[in-house]
Every structure is written in C-alpha cells, then in structure tokens.
Specification:
Blueprint (H helix, E strand, L loop, with lengths): L2 E6 L8 E6 L2 E6 L8 E4 L5 E2 L2 E6 L18 H11 L5 H17 L2 E9 L6 H13 L4 E7 L10 H11 L3 E4 L7 H18 L2 E6 L9 H11 L6 E5 L2 H4 L2 H14 L2 E4 L1 H7 L15 H6 L4 E3 L16 H11 L5 H9 L3 H7 L14 E4 L4 H7 L3 E6 L2 E5 L4 E3 L10 E3 L3
Parallel strand pairs: 1-4, 6-7, 7-8, 8-9, 9-10, 10-11, 11-12, 12-13
Antiparallel strand pairs: 1-2, 2-3, 5-14, 14-15, 15-16, 17-18
Helix pairs in contact: 2-3, 5-6, 6-8, 11-12
Length: about 425
C-alpha cells in the first residue's frame, strides 16, 4: 500500500483502526491491518475523520473586510448595501486572488469541500467567471461547488434571472434564491416557483437563502417545501438560514417541521453569522436568531452548519475553521449533551457532504483517501479544543501538517522536562 494510518479513532466511535490507502482511495479500514506501506502514520489513538465540509459560504466576498468601509450597524441590510458599494469596484483578479487565499486557509484547516454562493446580479458576471476559474484550479485539493445567487432579488433586480441562467451555463452548479428580499411576499413565492421549476427542468440542486429575518411572518420555507414536493425535488433542495423560524410561534412550527421533512428539504444554519446579524433590532430580551436545530434533528430533518462569511461586509471574523462553527452552534442551540455535541460534528462533516452530493466521502474501503488527523480523541473533544489538524490528506497525499499544541512548564515541585498536551 502507499499509506497506512494506524491506531486511528473514527467519528463513529470505533477505536484502534488502521486505514490502508492505495493511490487516491481507501482500500482497507480494520484493526491491526497486516499489510505494510511505503509511508505510515501513527495516529496515536487520535481522531481521523473525513474532511470538514462547509455547506454555505460566500467566496466572492470573502477577505474583503473594510472595503470600502466596515459595516457600522452590523446588520444584514447594511451588509447588503455595503456589498452593493463594493461590487462596481470589483475586479476579476482581486476576487480570484482573495478566493485562492481563502482556499489555502481552508485546506490547512481540513476543510476540503465548500458550497459557495456567487452573486449573479452584476451583469458582468466577473465574480462568476473568477470563481469558476478558482473551482478549476483548486479541484485537486478542494471540491468547490457554486450556487448562482441573485443577491438583490430574482424579480427585484433587473435581468437577474437571465444572469442566473448565464451563470449556470458558465459552470455554476446549483440554483440559489433570496425570496425574503423580493418586494412582496407574493414576489418571494413567485421567485421560489420560478427557480424550482428551472432547477427541475435542468436537473439541478437548489439552495436558497430563505427567511433570513427575525420576522416570524417570513414564511417562505413553507413555499420552498411545497414546491420541492410538487416538483419531485426531494433530497436536492436546501433552505439556508431559516432564522425567522427562531421567532415563529410553536403551533405553526409544529405544522412546518413535518412539511420540511416530507419534502426532504435540508436545512443549513449559519451559527456564527446568525448570532451576529439577527436580533439587532431587539433591546432585551435579545433573540439568538439561529433556526431550531435540535427540533429539526428530532424531526428527522438533515441539518448542516455553514461558515457563511469570513472577513466580508457582514462579518469581520472567521478563519475557515469549521470546528469554530460547530463550537458556536453548540452554544447557541444549547446542544451540550454528548449526543447533541456529536450531532454538531456530523453537521460539519457527513450531513453537508450528503447535501452537496459528494461522491466517495467517508472512511470506508472505496472512499476517496481524503482524511483529517486531529489532535483530539473524539468529535466532542475536537470541538472543545478546536483541535490542531495534525495532518490533512487529499487523495492519498499529505497536503498540510500542523504541530500539536504543546507547553513546557517547570512549576515548583514538578520535573522540568514535563511536556504535555494543552488541556488534555
Ligand atoms: Zn449566505
């Protein structure tokens, strides 16, 4: 074999597992593998996981923080206005360079698949062209899936639907939308119908920004679920954000959850950005804004977490670390039980991989040899420590290494040579 990782703990709880790799594929996953390999890694009983997957990102805006100014109010709407100021000054080169830099960060963090929305409301489509080129260039290292996103509204922004169709023709993968930003509730519903019909006709997936609002009357998710059901798009549609569900009354939600489940619509929450942008008009009590993740999981709905933004008009923080995303989700949703904490790890690995439709994802024979060796024993500890990514492996090759955090202390009464791992 080309590479064997020995003594791995896996996210499903198996321990002392050896992972054999030939070329770009995993060929064996079993205890005490008898084979030998030209390269071996001793995982030292630490966690080896399939890579992190970000189900919701905006790579065309990433790393543009402060251009041309920062978001003073911190609201979603000022962020959209700020992006509108920045758009006319964008160049294809600048978008491409920032995106490539972010992909470097992502790979180092073990984030090897990203679904990024790309704004199609600029008729020049220069961000689309830049990200299609980024997707081609980073393909050996990272799966970049693009969503045609009419940021200023499909019906509200002149020419947006034509631009969206052109973007799909240029190589964008998924149909996006933003019904809550159309002029009326009726226009929002119409945009969902048009976009879902277009996706059904083209055989494409759908991922809409939906109800990113604290207004409990923002109910476009109901229409998205109904259109998904009507058009037979089950398993191919995601609703991103759904923050208005945080503020809806429980009676209505008790009808809505089974509707989402029946339609097979997946949900993508964005904890870092939801907790930052939502509740801005509240005094106290101040709502958290993130959608109802534990209730959705209990109803059998697929829920993934996205990073959404890193250093852009909406959010000036972040570094491409999906463990930070899961850490915030766990706190915002109070998912502190053991099973709930593990579910937060699943929401940045297996579930988004399924939503993106990634082929060969997992730690089983036949899967791509895409793995991350973490300085943590299990998924919950990985989230707690935002653990170091000791090695990132893509298609059988080690593409990034990071040393384990270590401290050397000589406290009174202790041997001076004690090296120990931080916090473990
Ligand atoms: Zn978004």
């Amino acid at each position: 074999m080309d590479l064997i990782i020995r003594n791995a703990s896996l996210p499903d709880g198996r321990t002392q597992i050896d992972i054999g790799i030939n070329g770009a594929r995993i060929v064996a996953v079993e205890p005490a593998l008898a084979a030998t390999a030209s390269q071996e890694i001793d995982a030292q009983c630490n966690l080896v996981t399939p890579p992190f997957v970000d189900a919701h990102f905006h790579m065309d805006a990433a790393l543009s923080y402060g251009l041309p100014r920062v978001n003073a109010s911190g609201t979603l709407l000022e962020g959209i206005a700020l992006w509108g100021e920045l758009k006319p000054t964008l160049t294809q080169h600048a978008v491409l360079e920032r995106a490539l830099q972010y992909c470097d960060w992502a790979v180092a963090r073990g984030l090897l698949a990203i679904r990024s929305h790309v704004d199609v409301c600029d008729p020049r489509l220069l961000a689309v062209e830049a990200l299609v080129e980024v997707k081609r260039r980073v393909a050996p290292y990272l799966d970049l899936q693009l969503v045609a996103f009419p940021q200023d509204g499909l019906l509200r922004s002149p020419g947006a639907f034509d631009n969206l169709k052109r973007a799909i023709a240029l190589g964008v993968d998924v149909v996006g939308g933003i019904p809550h930003f159309e002029r009326t509730m009726a226009d929002g519903a119409k945009s969902i119908r048009l976009l879902c019909e277009f996706a059904a006709q083209k055989g494409l997936r759908v991922d809409m920004h939906c109800d990113e609002s604290d207004d409990p009357m923002s109910r476009h998710i109901e229409t998205l679920a109904a259109e998904t059901h009507r058009l037979g798009l089950q398993g191919r549609v995601a609703g991103s954000h759904l923050t208005s569900m945080h503020s809806m009354n429980n009676d209505y939600v008790s009808k809505l959850l089974p509707l989402i489940r029946e339609a097979g619509v997946a949900v993508i929450a964005n904890p870092l950005v939801n907790i930052t942008l939502q509740g801005r008009a509240d005094t106290y009590p101040k709502r958290r804004g993130m959608t109802r993740v534990p209730e959705m999981l209990a109803a059998g709905i697929d829920v993934a977490f996205g990073h959404d933004c890193v250093m852009d008009p909406w959010y000036g923080f972040g570094s491409g670390d999906m463990l930070e995303v899961a850490h915030m989700a766990l706190h915002v949703a109070q998912m502190t039980g053991v099973d709930a904490s593990r579910a937060c790890f699943t929401a940045i690995t297996q579930t988004p991989a399924r939503i993106l439709g990634l082929e060969g994802y997992g730690v089983e024979p036949g899967c791509h040899a895409d793995l991350v060796w973490l300085d943590a024993r299990d998924p919950v500890e990985a989230i707690r420590l935002r653990a170091a990514r000791l090695a990132v492996i893509r298609r059988g090759q080690v593409v990034s290494r990071q040393p384990a955090a270590q401290a050397t202390l000589a406290l009174p009464g202790r041997p001076a040579s004690v090296n120990f791992k931080l916090c473990r």
